[in-house]
């Protein structure tokens, strides 16, 4: 029974492959008349020319489900998905869940989409499932877009100038197609998540009257516990979960708390160099004089660096390697976003890789539906297998088309041989075999792909370090 199912599925695939090869069968005579005198060298040269033509003529494909033109409606209905992040390793700070909001519902094989990312300390399990529809006002949409662009641009570039350029481009995209989805921090249980509007509103900082701004549950509202920053006097409750930058070196930090027992007069212990006060250390190495000696320091760590966590060849960090905690004098800090926890920041550091996998699965699903209408068992072929079939080794992921190459070659040889022997029944096997080799050669397949405007590869070689993937995520805001 299982064998019959498998054979029926293969026959369905062969029907499409047979149609796909009709273009070649029309030019069999050309291949017969124009033999390849230079053998392998000419074939390689033709492939290079074809690859160059492909680079010039074909833009990277983005699934239409994630692209759209923003509207001007006062309210917009969004389909909401919960992206749950579950580390398969022990960690001090668990990444928070993310909500993906899209105006049209996405189409996947299953209601729940699961995959893994290869992060520095192990596997990060991603689970995405549909939640419900939500309505957002135009003001809420703009706020979510600003939050998304601000946080992702900071994570990708660590550059305030590029952030300003990206934010200035938000209004310019209202009349053209852009990546039309929202990535929003989530709060609440998995069964009934909601938008974390407190975190989203962190992008509005600084606000007027910052000295009067407090977090819920702050015990300092009456007596006040303020510290000096570049922005002015701010309550400690606002600083303990925020993104700050130290303008003297341009480094961005995630703050995690207040160090009550540490200030500028505390001793900084240095390996084999004795001890020195923080105040003296800043004066010696940075030429900065700390003025507010009694104010507690902030605890934090450097902003995360976004990587391509889909790669299967990433260099693992040495055991015990973690983000080092730093002590920051508040008077040297300029607040960029507040309040935002390090858990929310870390989850958005994984967002480019998550969106890349969602994009690739949507592309594979579209290709599956486009090419396999003749297969009665279409639903039995997992989309992940289609994705594997269009993923080259250059992508350097944990799977690629190499394992399916032998089966694919067999399909091509079968279909081409059947048509050639049917059309030229009186010809000898030798010449027909040569014709078949020419028809299914890499040179011919590449030419057909370019002629039919089919992308030759899903990934470019630039994806080794994830740079291509990262830049694509927000290129519409430039």
Automatic annotation (TrEMBL):
GO terms under cellular component: cytoplasm; nucleus
Swiss-Prot/TrEMBL keywords: Hydrolase
GO molecular function, one term: RNA binding
GO biological process, alphabetically ordered: siRNA processing
Domain RNase III: 388-449
InterPro entries: RNase_III_dom, RNase_III_sf
Hydrolase in keyword set: yes
Top-level taxon of origin: Eukaryota
Protein name: RNase III domain-containing protein
